[in-house]
Amino acid sequence: MPSWSIPYVLLVPGILVIAGLLLYPMIQMVTMSFQSISLRVIRGVAEPKWVGLENYTKLFDNDIFWSSLRNTIVFAAVTVALTLILGTAVGVLLNRLSRRMSTFVIIGIMSAWAVPPVAQGTIWRWLFDAEAGIINWALNLLPDGLSTLVLGRADWTAQPWLNDAWSVYIVLVLTVVWASFPFVAVSVLAGLRGIPAELYEAARVDGSTPWHTFRKITFPLLKPVFAVLTILSIIWDFKVLSQLYVLLNGPTNREAFNLSLFSFAEAFKAPPKMGSGAAIAVVLTIILLVVTAFYTRQMVKQEDLT
Amino acid sequence: MRIAKITATTVTTAALALGLAACGSGETTTPQPQASASASGPKFAGQSITVWRLGDPNEPSQKYMDDLVAEFKTQTGATANVQWIPWPQVNDKFTAAAAGGEGPDVTEIGNDQVPLWQSQDALAPVTSITTGGEHAQIPKNLFGLETIDGEVYAMPWGAGTRAVMYRKDWFEDLKIEPPKTWDELVAAAKKIQDEKGKDVDGFAFNGGSDANHLLGALAWSEGGEYAVKEGDKWVGKLTDPAFKTGFETYTGLVTSGVSGKSRLTLNTTDIRTRFSNGKVGMYLTASWDIATIKEESKGKVKEDQMAFFPLPSKSGGETPAFFGGNDITVWNDAKNKELATEFVKLATSKKWADRYALDGGLLPVYPDTLAELAKDPAQAPFAAAFAKAKAFPADPQWTEANETKAVLQNAARSVIEGKATADEALAKANKELEDILNQS
């Protein structure tokens, strides 16, 4: 075997797995998005019908698509930012704790991360329940004056958090940030542990403030970590489905759909419309690919420079 | 930069691995118990079929199925395995079964669901049953939704209409008479909330998968219609003043505070659970809920604390109720259609169909049994509603408008939240309803 071929041979098993499990379904999905696929097609008693761009034109005419797109993007932007800020802050904090204490805190926050998505949704749905929820109860405990001053109202009895799209998304942001910041925190901590202590000592000798140290030493050194975490968070937050499904009590409230839930409702609720469901999924995939490609380029560029 | 790079790689790898793990979920399948084969005995000895019953089992319905299955075994020698599917999951389960998943051989089905599932090739014709013997006594007008292109795709098993279930003991405590007009109903609901707490729904708003049972009754009572077929096209009638009046009565349940604003997506099953917990004074349902509530509330709500009255209309008199009915039929993928048809035939014979209806709180499909039942004062509200019963548009796409897209539920939500006027919301809903019903 010529030596140049070794990398390729080593790559083959991985490529085969990706091709079988990812590429083939992706091609299938794109094909389906140009077809009308009813249950009868899935049952094998009818042939899929080519409809050209009809699934897409119908989709772009649909108000629900545009509100879903808006919900998806705004949610991802807010959640990614909050997750990274909170995660980094906690990571830096963990680095200053003693070994035993930081292990303790890590176990604590990682258990939030380990909660399965449906359970996350259930937990927060109960917390924000209009009548039995602890949030409304706690807001009512605030002194009336303070509550009115800060939040604009004193009485929170039976406040229906999960009706209106925007308040559902407040709860969803909390749910997802709560469950995903620990991963960022621990990754940042791992990165921080790798930065030589001499740099910080030198900074201290030079009289640098903590903020300055973070900006001039920590952040540049951890930039690759942040780049990866940002991409991952974007991918994860664009795809949120289970938590939203649980918070909304199923796909009924269409104003609060995001693209994933919209795609799911189209493709799998009776009568299933796999074609338009696939079209939504294609749009979501393209958005994600563009965003990811952009960030990956940035990342590669930076590494070339350093 | 080495360390940072390694960290980055590690993070990526770990995340990908976790991502994959998260994706790898599988659907759980229930193993099919195989009946033990016996060499001798009746024709189908040793074979088995799966029967789907819809709803949550309660004591009488469970007992009924046990007896029916035993009778089936005696007659055919075959075993029937009964599985219960809660109503809100029915369409999802049918979808999965029709797409090639684990399905039934015989299934119960809502009569308004028959056109949809027939159009998806999921049901087998059972026309042969209807022509012979006592089955011919079932009135032909009960086969309206079931007859498609001359073939009957499901057998009527029991007819269900809806009436208002109320807490009889609360009414007696608070000295409220069962309401005869809509205004009285709202007044009664307010009084219940004043006395029993603000988190109690005086009259529960249904905004879930079966919301149109309530909205339909209110709209029909004003003379409104969802849509009518003109030629081969459906024309939406949601913007007609009559429908609008009914729609406003419906949203008024929440805007007047009679039902909590935080509960806009509850279906009858969710409301029943709240009723069992003493959080609902009145709601629209069928009489089968009595047995379930008795069990579910674990004695908190007893049988003598529940009663029914016909839903009064805004303009006076009783509302036309949704003409509901439960059918039973042969699933098209049944492995042994002959045996499955035998089960349907037995279940809809006079003896077993009558008992199905009477034990389950439905109206019997055999006319003489129905006439007998109408004399019973407890059943009178249902018989009264049955006389005026109306059905939703008979179209395979109705289920999509009704449950999947929840067109009118979303229209009601936007009005309740003050984002649109009833006119705006209904105009939008009307267009969508037409689009859905007229798609090929």
CATH class of the largest domain in chain B: Alpha Beta
Main sheet: strands, sense, barrel of chain A: 2 strands, antiparallel
Poorly predicted regions of chain B: 1-40
Number of domains of chain A: 1
Any idea what the shape of chain B is? globular
Q: Please give the count of helices of chain A.
A: 14
> Which H/E pattern describes the elements of chain A?
HEHEHHHHHHHHHHHH
- CATH fold type of the largest domain in chain B: D-Maltodextrin-Binding Protein, domain 2
Helix content bin of chain B: 40-55%
What's the total helix number of chain B? Answer: 18
Ranges of chain A where pLDDT stays below 50 over 5 or more residues in a row are none
Q: Tally of extended strands of chain A?
A: 2
Radius of gyration of chain A: 24 Å
Helix content of chain A: over 70%
Q: Which chain pair shows the most residues in contact?
A: A-B, 47 and 48 residues
What is the CATH architecture term of the largest domain in chain B?
3-Layer(aba) Sandwich
Largest sheet of chain B: 6 strands, mixed
Determine Rg of chain B (CA atoms, Å): 24 Å
Please explain how this structure is put together.
The complex is a heterodimer of chains A (306) and B (440). By secondary structure, chain A is mainly alpha-helical. Chain A has a single domain, classed as MetI-like fold (Orthogonal Bundle). Chain A contains 14 helices and 2 strands. A two-stranded antiparallel sheet of chain A has the order 1-2. In chain A, helix 3 packs across helix 14 (274-305). The longest helix of chain A is centred in the N-terminal third of the chain and has 34 residues, at 63-96. In chain A, 32% of the residues are buried. The model of chain A has no long low-confidence stretch (mean pLDDT 89). By secondary structure, chain B is α+β, with helices and mostly antiparallel strands. Chain B has 2 domains: 48-160 and 323-373, D-Maltodextrin-Binding Protein, domain 2 (3-Layer(aba) Sandwich), CATH 3.40.190.10; 163-322 and 393-438, Periplasmic binding protein-like II (D-Maltodextrin-Binding Protein, domain 2, 3-Layer(aba) Sandwich). Chain B is 44% helix and 15% strand. In chain B, the strands form 4 sheets. In chain B, strands 1, 2, 3, 4, 7 and 14 form a 6-stranded mixed beta sheet that branches. A 4-stranded mixed beta sheet of chain B has the order 9-12-8-13. Chain B has a two-stranded antiparallel sheet with strand order 5-6. Residues 1-40 of chain B have low confidence and may be disordered. Chains A and B meet through helix 2, helix 9 and helix 11 of A and helix 1, helix 3, helix 16 and helix 17 of B. Chain B: GO terms for molecular function: maltose binding. Chain B: Keywords: Signal, Transport. Chain B: Pfam families: SBP_bac_1. Chain B: Belongs to the bacterial solute-binding protein 1 family. Chain B: This is Extracellular solute-binding protein.
